[in-house]
Every structure is written in structure tokens, then in C-alpha cells.
Design goal:
This protein is mainly alpha-helical. Helices cover 58% and strands 5% of the residues. It folds into 2 domains: 241 residues, Cytochrome Bc1 Complex, Chain C (Up-down Bundle); 125 residues, no CATH class. A hairpin with a 2-residue loop joins strand 3 and strand 4.
Amino acid sequence: MSHDFFPSYTPKSKLAKWFESRLPLLGFMHSAGVSFPVPRNLNYWWTSGVILCFMLVSQIVTGIFLAMFYTPHVDLAFSSVEHILRDVSYGWLIQPLHAVGASMFFLAVYVHIFRGLYYGSYKAPREILWILGVILYLLMMATAFLGYVLPWGQMSLWGATVITNFFSAIPGVGKTVVSYLWGGYAVGNPTLNRFFSLHFLLPFMICGVVILHVWALHVPGNNNPDGVEIKTKKDALPFHPYYTTKDFFAVFVFLILFAWFTFYMPRYLGHADNFIAADRSVTPAHIVPEWYFLPFYAILRAVTFQIPLGFYTIDSKLGGVIAMFGAIVVLAFLPWLNNSKVRSTKYRPLYKPFFWLFFLTCIILGWLGSKPTDGDWMIGSWHIVNYTTASQIFTLLYFAHFALLPIIGKIEKTKPLPDSIFEAVLKKNGSAKPAGSAELPNKTA
């Protein structure tokens, strides 16, 4: 894609020329954030990336503030969080901003992921961009899990105990890995100190990968709802002011939702047991992670049987760990599993229902992850299925989606693509003019 469609930065003053000749920072910022050509047909789903950048900055700023007052000690951690909320100036605001911000961060990232899945943003030449996104997702999950342990409530203690114990299933090195995570023979003070250090460090690693992610985006440019590359200047608009305005509006709307939870329901997204100080002598009736981990928690618990593998048998504990991490890692292979020549699902009539089935499967897995394993799925007085059996069914559907992708790509008859983005926009706006006959007015519709 050509990046020369729109005027480049030209320094005017002597000072600007002197500075640009030695460090072309302003020119780089102009080419990356002002004159960068963006497909003119992008919709509001593409604003999720800017929302994620905003949330990352918000989490780092509020996290640094909280770290000034938090005490990573098992006897003091819970009371230090209460101290922040009750006694520190504006602690009542900063702590909920950080806690609710984690949920808002994952809400935005799930919108970002499903948008990429629907419009095929992982297909060539954007494979590296997608893989970096999967790495960011894994880093986010690790950071969120570590942060969930820090308040040292009941769910923090027992969630850390359950999840870290699963690493012991790794053949050969499992127990060693767990002992390093714990810093001893059980989850305790060394564990909390390690988790606090890692929780503080990982966001800065995320920033580094985000820079690579944005860099990888600027090489091929943005995908778009029609999956057609920019060919001429008519297909594109400069990023500023058209899409900066659109992004600003989307962030503002997102902040309304963020503020509503922060000010009116700051504890709604957390588990009630985590507002009780950690107590080793009392085990919660039902241990669950935060909502954004629930689909993978359901997959983890779905493996309740041994898996024979030649001369070796994978027990249910290791099988669940493999399934859980496999459910995330398989996303990185999507560019090669999806062999369709068409990117956007809007032009794939056979694949579209499979995509929405996959979306529904993820939602139901999240719901199942919040349920006890020994419960039954009931509709009224009707017994449908045991929750564990339901988790196994929907876990199978989850992985079947990826197995079916190559088959669907081969047998599917896709709809014809527009010749250009400009033509697609004209058709959307109901114009009878042929593509290329006139310039479309500059707008972001």
C-alpha cells in the first residue's frame, strides 16, 4: 500500500528544519498519525484499537498510583486496599478505576478480536500483526490474573491456589514450576511478592509489544469491512482529521459505560468472596475466576477423562491445561487454517452462520465457566444437561470451528467482491455513479 497519497510533513521554521534534520520525529508522527492513508469505509468496530490504547494508559497510570500505597504482604495486603479506598485522597476513585478498568480492557479486546475474526484481519499480509495480537492477549491474561491475586481476598487466595496447581501437571518440570511460582510449599507471602512484582512489570512489556503491533499495522495498512486493499487515492482518507474524530467520539461513548460502572456499580464485576480477607481455614463454596477468564475456565474443567496417547496417558489435569492453552494458541494459526481467498465474512454466505455459532459457543462457555461442576442446566423444571457435560459439548464445538475452517474455505462459493473500496462505498450510499467517475466527498460514513 502506498503511503504517499497525502502530503508529507514539511518543516517551516528554521528551528523545525534543524530539529527534523537531526531527529525526524515530527515527520514520523505526521506520517503515522496524520497523513497515514486509511480505508474510507472503516466502521466503528475499528475504533476498538484506540480504545485499547486508552485503557492501557489508564491502567498503567492508576496502577502506579495504587503501587505507592499497596503493601504486598499477606497480613497487610487486604487492609492496605481498604486503606486506599477509605483514607488515601481520591483512592475511592483510583482503585475502582483500576479494578473496573481491567474488565473494560477485556471488553474492548474481545470486541477487537471478534471484529478481526469476522472481517478476516488475520489473513495475508497481516499474519505477524495477528500473532502479535495473540501474544498481547496472553500477556493481558497473565497480568490480569496476577492483579486479581493482589487484594488478597478469599477468591484471590483460592483462585491462585487452584490455577497455579494446574502447572504441576506439566510432565517433569511441573512441580518445580509451581515451587518457583509459590516461593515455597504453598501460596503465601513470597507468592504475593512475586505476583506484585510481575504485575507491575508486565504492563511495560505489553507497551513494547503494542509498539510492534502498531508498527506491523502500518506496513500493510488497515484491513476494512470489504477486505479489499487500497488501490488508489479514492479508496483512502488521511487518518487525521477524519478517523481521529471518529476515534475520539468512540472513546467518549466507551467512557460513559466505564464511568457508569466505576461510579454506580464498582463492585458488580467482582466476586463477593473477594471482599472477605483471605482465610486458609475456609474454602469458598465455588471458586471462579473473573468473567473474562470464564470461557477458558469452562474448557479447563471440561476435560474430566484420561487421554491415551500411544504408550503415554495424559491425565485429566494435564489434558485440561493443554485444552485451555490450546484454545488460545490455536488463534495464532488462523491465517493458515482459513484458506478462503475472501477476507470478510460479509461475502462468505456458508461461513457466516459458522462464525455466529462460534460467537454463541464462546458466550455459553463463559456462562458455563461460572457454574458449579456438579450442577444441572435447567430451563424451568426441565433438566437439560449436567454443566460438565455441557462444557464438554461446547468445548468440542469451539475446537471444531477451527477444524472446519479449511474445509469451508475449499467448498464455499463466495459472493463477488467490489472492484475497489471506492466502489463499495458508492454502492453503500446508493450512488448510481460508476466507480472512479468522481471523487467521493470526504466523510467517514
